[in-house]
C-alpha cells in the first residue's frame, strides 16, 4: 500500500509573518514536521507542496518539493482545492496530510494511526485533543444538563481536531472529497503534541516548549 505524506506550505502567511521559515529550536518551523514524517517507516514518500522554488534549500534530506500553482496561495483558497491538486499529481493508496504548524506531533503517533487504518478496522484517521470539562455549543451545554451537574472526572469528554494530520485513502477523497471517513481512528494527543501555531501567541508557546526540551 503506497503511502505518501504531503505538507502544503505557502511563504506568504498572514497571521504569523514568515512563520513556516521562522526558526524554532534552531531550525525553520516547517522542518520539525518534515523530519518527523521522514522518520515514519510506513510512509514511502514525503512532499512539500509549495509554489516557491526558494523553499528547496530548507528541505531536510528525504523530502521532495512539488511545485504547485501560485493560484493556490490566495487567502481565499480552500483546503479541498489544494488536496484536489496534489492527489491529481501524485498517485498513492493512502495519503497523510500534515501541517507545518504542528511541530511537536510524534512519529510514534503517526505510525500507530497508519497501522490502524492499514488494518482495515478504520477508514481514516486524524489527530484530536480530548477535552473533559463543561462544554457549550450554540448557546447550550454540549455534554451535560444544567439540572444534573456531573463531576469533571465523569463528564462526557469532547474531542477537538488538532489539524496536525489526517490520513485518508485515495478512494475516500476521490469519491466524496472527504479527509475523514465514517469509521475514523482518533489519535488522541496531549496539549503539547497537539499544539497548532495559528497566531503569534502560539509561536511564543512553541518557543517555550522547544527551549524546555533543549534544557531537558
- Widest beta sheet: strand line-up: 5-4-1-6-10-7-11
Rg estimate, integer Å: 18 Å
What ranges have pLDDT less than 50 throughout 5 or more consecutive residues? none
Number of helices: 5
Helices and strands: which structural class? alpha/beta
Overall mean confidence score, pLDDT: 93
In CATH, what is the homologous superfamily?
A: Spore Coat Polysaccharide Biosynthesis Protein SpsA, Chain A
Strand fraction band?
25-35%
CATH architecture: Alpha-Beta Complex
Shape: globular
How does the major sheet shape up? 7 strands, mixed
- In total, the number of domains comes to 1
Distance between the termini: 38 Å
| Helical residue percent band | 25-40%
By CATH, the topology is: Spore Coat Polysaccharide Biosynthesis Protein SpsA, Chain A
Write down the CATH class.
Answer: Alpha Beta
Please report the total strand number as a whole number.
11
Oligomer designation: single chain
Order of helices and strands: EEEHEEHEHEEEEHEH
